Amino acid sequence: MVDETQIWAGERVTETSAGDERPSVRVRPNGPPYGGASGAAGRDPRQAARPRNNDPCYAALDLGTNNCRLLVARPTGSGFRVVDAFSRIVRLGEGLICSGRLGAAAMDRAVEALKVCAAKIEARHIVDRRLIATEACRSAVNGAEFIDRVTRETGLELEIVDRETEARLAASGCTPLVDPTSDGAVLFDIGGGSTEVVWLDRVETRDGGPPAAVIRAWVSVPLGVVTVAERHGGVKVTRDDFEAMVNEFTPHLAGFVQAVGPHNCGRLHLLGTSGTVTTIAGVHLDLPRYDRSQVDGTWLGAEQVRVVVDRLLAMPFAERAANPCIGVERADLVLAGCAILESVRRAFPCDRLRVADRGLREGILVELMRADGVWRPRGGAST
After folding, report:
1. Which of the residues 12, 43, 202, 278 has an alpha carbon 20 to 30 A from that of 244?
2. Closest by alpha carbon to 22, among 8, 2, 52?
3. Starting from the edge strand earliest in sequence, which strands make up the sheet with 6-9, in order?
């Protein structure tokens, strides 16, 4: 497999893979305010076709390797309130690692989910939107062809974003959860087909909106829960299988750690945004059903994370599938995500992990609203 890891540090660098066998590394020196809404997975699109709501709203859609997610929100005094949401596991990247193509059944599943999203968007007064597709469509040879099909069948015009944009949007969405008393956070977003890791600061803005993200460095690794699970298996996972997953991912972080340079993990914390970390939080809290209000912003200690991962490793597949915070659709993916998390934890052995049930979509909304100047300035121009 060609290593397409991308790493950036210092000033902004836009970089594409040259297709060689080494990680692509470039270094230059000197370098919760949101309203919550539960997903509407599986809802019939006709249920969303209610009379148009005339309150001005913004829409953000993220079509990933595993999930299709939509948020519709309207601005508030210091952030935004979610007025509609949708999430469905579509596994668009199923089989992609072997074939290099999006499969017919996977594309059909995604299109059906996107029809629900289109109905929800149509039912609102949307003043601006951004609809993105990530790793599966980026890497598939028929990704652009699929995007054209989506436009024909749903009316939605999706944008395939690069990895730098994906990292930036995740950072914009999660920055409010960075502890302002720390030296920053190592943000990681474990997706279905790629994982972004970002060295992140935050700054308070003068426009009254959420704090802005300051990215010191980032890396994008072309491995996520779907690709790792397909390569190593996800139903019966032994300790040796788990370590093999960790060892596959770890070399991709070496250049990033070097780019970051000397650091004190005691003054940093991890900040995780993905189904993996929200699952770990839900299992840790022994929730009878997943509850975003209890998970988003939760702090976990390093030992608490280790205990949950060990517990998941010891669970038979049927028990994982029966857990209300995992479910059948994620039961074969969760340990691949835990292995990626473990690799990040070994590279950055911070004492604390903060869990974010937010990410790309929230980042899109913040950027759209900030560009429109929806928040009232406080004593000067916005940052």
Report:
1. 278
2. 2
3. 24-27, 6-9, 212-221, 195-203, 185-190, 269-273, 352-356, 299-301
Q: Is 172 helix (H, G, I), strand (E, B) or coil?
A: helix
Tokens representing 260 are: 């970051």
DSSP 13-30: --------SS-EEEE-S-
State the Rg of the chain over Cα. 20
Q: Max CA-CA distance within the chain?
A: 58
- Residue range 261-289: mean pLDDT, rounded: 93
Portion of the chain with pLDDT greater than 70, in percent: 85
Strands 299-301 and 53-63: unpaired
Q: Among 50-54, 177-181, 235-239, 299-303, which stretch is predicted with the lowest mean pLDDT?
A: 50-54
Q: Tens digits of per-residue pLDDT, 165-179?
A: 999 999 999 999 999
Q: Which of 12, 111, 121, 125 shows the shortest CA–CA distance to 361? A: 121
Measured torsion, CA atoms of residues 118, 124, 125, 131, in degrees rounded to the nearest 10: -30
Predicted structure pTM score: 0.83
Name which of 321, 337, 332, 325 is nearest 245 in CA terms: 337
Start-to-end CA distance of the chain, whole Å, equals: 42
User: Residue for token digits 């290099």?
Assistant: 100
Can you read off the two tokens belonging to residue 124?
A: 């609102």
Q: Are 300 and 281 in contact (CB under 8 A)?
A: yes
Residues near 113 by beta carbon (within 8 Å), at least 6 away in sequence: 68, 86, 88, 90
β-bridge partners, 278: none
